[in-house]
Amino acid sequence: MTPHAAQRGERSHRSRLKPVEVGVNITPMCSSVRRRLGRPLLSLLAGSVLLPVLAVAPAHAGARTGRPAEAPSACAVSGAPERSVEGLKRCEQDAFDALFARSPAGAMPHGFLRGRTLRCRGCEQLSNTALAALAHPLWQGKTFHADSRGGYVENNLGPGIPAVRGEVSYAAYPLDGRLAIRIVYRDDAGGLITDWLREVAPGVYAGTMTITEDAEFPWRVLDFALYR
Q: Please, which residues have CB within 8 angstroms of residue 12's CB and are 6 or more apart in sequence?
């Protein structure tokens, strides 16, 4: 292989590593999500949380403005779990990403963890407050049926209805190669949606939802928190 060909191949590989916020056109992704989530009834309930978010996202979500990058300020995660979650809700996107990147996978959760949606990446027309108001009545958290290595998870929808089951285990997070807790929804979402968790404070997990289409590198779509 010539040096020029190697450089082209390296650039092509790097281009696949770009998350949704750097200008990926998510219009085909929205169609794919609607198509796959429309199969089982329980997935329609999950789609009721995800699809309104994607519907207001611009075609090129979160394209960069050209402003110079600034060092992110640290997220305040300390004290009671509720206080840590409020800190995650208030911190900037770059600070959240930095915290997620340096945090350990943490202990495998057990039992019910309350859930809080934080932000939709690239949804310029939907505020975090509106996102929380939209999602909270529909999604209450997750119940983990797992040992120290993994098991399965059920999402709690509406008035405590267990639904949208996923497989949970440890795996390498594709954006940095470090260990994280992975939840894959193979049956109720056709493997399209994966959640990634890391423990950012005792009993508090920062999470990010990714969507993978046709074996391409995942798009980060939604940030959330789980806590006791």
A: none
